[in-house]
Design a protein that fits this description.
- The protein is α/β, with parallel strands linked by helices.
- It has one domain: 3-Layer(aba) Sandwich (Rossmann fold).
- The protein has eleven helices and seven strands.
- Helix 5 runs parallel beside helix 6 and helix 10 crosses helix 11.
- The radius of gyration is 19 Å and the shape is globular.
Length: about 280
């Protein structure tokens, strides 16, 4: 649970956050905590019914009657839609202090079973679904010479596992984008963060189960399973400290291992795959 001391400080008082992918999972948990810490939130997702339901939950965490919880029904992979809706929102509420990009999907499968359209769908959703809001909001942040953009990668943004051939490249791309933005817009006082969560108990993870290869299920057990609320707390603490890399749970250890001992990591995950295949009777 978030420390009472931090709640009393209200570090996000009078701040506005646009939270893309804010109707479910880590996004909704972040919106709740952001509001609990004094902020105003606009949650963005495609389905209006889900947005309205999430907004009611988030409003319960308000600590003041003047706080705002808005909803914006938008497909962030559609650049024209993002440009129109986000521009109208900025005219209405002003330039956001924070842009959280949590939009993403994962439909894992054996690579030979994935179509080119599957790869394009992952890239459209996971990469362009985060890039479009950035491109729309960035000019306002440049003019203000202030702001903070937070992008969602994954442990798959630095370690490649079987089954994630369509997903992993999108998460590497988010890291590359974030690295470039961090350097380019530092003179404008625009902060960038990139998040690397391990498996988290979200609706998206449950949707993965429909196509996830059994080998991947066995391998993923090593990383554990986090709660969205715990990930959201790590994210917002990292944002307040202006951290570039935000590494919840086991991600910090795994990131360090991959950075300094990549051959060892590859040996471990290759061994995990071998054990998984043997358990399934594929390798005898």
């Amino acid at each position: 649970m978030i420390k009472e001391k931090l709640i009393k400080k209200q570090p996000f008082a009078n701040k506005l956050a646009i939270i893309c992918g804010g109707s479910k999972g880590i996004g909704k948990a972040t919106a709740k905590l952001f509001v609990q810490l004094g902020g105003n939130a606009c949650i963005v997702a495609r389905t209006l019914e889900t947005l309205n339901s999430a907004a009611k939950e988030i409003e319960e965490f308000k600590v003041g009657d003047d706080q705002i919880v808005d909803v914006l029904s938008c497909d962030t992979s559609n650049s024209e839609q993002v440009q129109n809706l986000f521009t109208d929102y900025v005219k209405k509420r002003g330039v956001p202090d924070y842009l959280f990009n949590y939009v993403g999907i994962s439909l894992p499968n054996y690579t030979e079973k994935l179509s080119i359209e599957d790869f394009k769908f992952h890239m459209d959703t996971n990469f362009f679904g985060q890039l479009n809001p950035i491109k729309t909001i960035l000019p306002y942040l440049i003019e203000e010479r202030n702001g903070h953009i937070i992008n969602m990668s994954s442990i798959s943004g630095f370690i490649g596992l079987m089954g994630y051939a369509a997903y992993t490249p999108t998460k590497f791309a988010i890291v590359g984008l974030s690295e470039g933005l961090r350097n380019e817009y530092k003179p404008f006082n625009i902060k960038i963060s990139v998040i690397f969560p391990p498996d988290t108990d979200t609706p998206g993870l449950h949707e993965e189960a429909e196509t996830r290869p059994e080998e991947l299920n066995i391998i993923a057990e090593r990383g554990g399973l986090l709660k969205p609320e715990d990930v959201a707390e790590t994210i917002l603490k990292g944002v307040l400290k202006k951290k570039f890399y935000i590494l919840p749970g086991s991600a910090k250890f795994m990131w360090r291992m991959m950075r300094f001992f990549p051959k060892l990591v590859h040996w471990v995950i290759d061994g995990d795959l071998k054990k998984a295949r043997k358990k399934m009777g594929k390798d005898k």
